[in-house]
Amino acid sequence: MAKGILYEQSEIRENILKRRKELGLTQAYIAECLGVARSTYTLMERGYRKITVEELVKLAAILDTSTDYLLYGELASDIGLFVDDPEPFYGEFSKLSEEDQAEIMNAIRYKLEKKGNKNGK
């Protein structure tokens, strides 16, 4: 096995792989949609390259699922994350650096834009 950084939560990569295979998509296709080399995506899927928040949001859109599913294997509504009370999210968000907050906001904007395009907007 090659040396590198493995996810602490291998479930993330397993969920990405499972969903990609469910849809019958190739690594090359996912890589092209993400704007990375296939070899880079392969490292991501195997857990040897960290996935940024923005990439995770893009992966969720490409794989027609939610980031909740990719992270946890189920939807946030099923595990009670920030659904009824968004206050915990805001509290945690405010602890992040401005750069991290900007990255998350860009990922949210990307997801909303993608959702708008699916709805014909």
Would you write up a description of this structure?
By secondary structure, the chain is an all-alpha fold. The protein has a single domain (11-118), classed as 434 Repressor (Amino-terminal Domain) (Orthogonal Bundle), CATH 1.10.260. The protein is 64% helix and 0% strand. The chain has 8 helices and no strands. Helix 2 (27-34) packs across helix 3 and helix 4 packs parallel to helix 8. It starts with 10 loop residues before the first helix and ends with a helix.
Strand content: under 5%
Q: From N to C, what is the helix and strand string? A: HHHHHHHH
The coarse silhouette is globular
Number of domains: 1
- Judged by helices, strands and strand pairing, the structural class is mainly alpha
Measured distance between first and last alpha carbons: 46 Å
- H/I helix tally: 8
CATH top level is Mainly Alpha
**Radius of gyration (Å):** 15 Å
Uncertain runs: 1-8, 76-81
Estimated helix fraction: 55-70%
According to CATH, the homologous superfamily is lambda repressor-like DNA-binding domains
Largest sheet: none
Within the CATH hierarchy, at the fold level, what is the topology? 434 Repressor (Amino-terminal Domain)
Oligomer: single chain
Short description:
By secondary structure, this protein is mainly α.
